[in-house]
Amino acid sequence: MDQAYDDAALARIFRDEYGRVVASLARRFGDLDIAEEAAGEALVVAVEKWAADGIPPNPGGWLTTTAGNKALDRLRRESLRDAKHQAALMITDDTPPEPTGPVEDDRLRLVFTCCHPALPPEARVALTLRLLGGLTVPEIARAFFVAEPAMGQRITRAKAKIKAAHIPFKVPAVADLPARLDAVLAVVYLVFNEGYLAGEGDSPTRVDLSDEAIRLARILRQLLPREPEVAGLLALLLLTDARRASRFAGGELVPLSEQDRAGWDRSLIEEGHALVRECLATNRPGRYQILAAINAVHTDAARAADTDWLQVLALYDQLQRIDPGPVVALNRAVAVAEVDGPDVALAIVDRLPLTTYHAWHATRAELLRRVGRSAEAREEYDAAVAATGNAAEQAYLTRRRRQLV
To answer: What is the CATH number of domain 308-402?
Structure first.
């Protein structure tokens, strides 16, 4: 039986299925522009047809078939008859794909394709977020802390590079996979982060994105079971997602220190802790393993007051040595505040070049609050509210500002 149609249902389905449709068409036709444009055209048709007939039982399959037909129509219209497109025209939706390598999932195959070494690292991540996660250019721009026009140009140049360099849409050989791994892990993590705390809109989360990131991380884990950074990333996502049910209340974000820990998902925590222990035994520390270990310390504490902040700070010190950067330093400052006091932490935060980052303003506001500088804290709360588009986070920050004396 067809599902009831409404705009919200259509938006949810298209967001869920976008990556599948684009990945399938990219494999089939070998052209990113064709894949994206055909997916967009299929949505236009869906808006018209589903409004009249209802949503079909298999909307993803419907969108893929319709987008495939749109792509074929375009190829015929433009008479793109080289060998590649002639072959694409001969493929039907019923034709099973030929085995092309160790990755059999279309979306993960496209992740590795977009992370080709010929592309600069920032372009690999941005392009994959656009094509696989279906994130908009503004969403990706926020993730990279760059202007929206610059991010749009970055994605356009990356697609042009793939076409001009004839980068193949195929899975790299097993021996080549590790070289692509850093960018792939960054993609999965950024997709998860956008889902875990949405950059804008009335909904504070986008569960479809965080769930998709975990799914991709699990596939990576199956593909590269001896790679500790893959295990570390999966552990990090699981330990973070385990707190999902306790992170919002009454339309507000609930900070870690105030969350109801009884609402945390213990099965995800146990799985994450097991992966962290496996990483420790491997003894090849990396960014995601250390972040996972930090989250393991937090989720091991029965109460916020029981948190081993000395261990958290030691882990951030290790992370700063192998992956230095201002965001790491900002998060480390939170641990410094618990160990050495807010004055010491504030001196660290004040030196960081993150004045356009909402978390910098929010962190600084809390530290100023703790040292009794209420007027300055009020200004920082205002700046943090202005710098985030997440309604639940804005509500929390606004309440904290009102509580200042």
So the answer is: 1.25.40.10
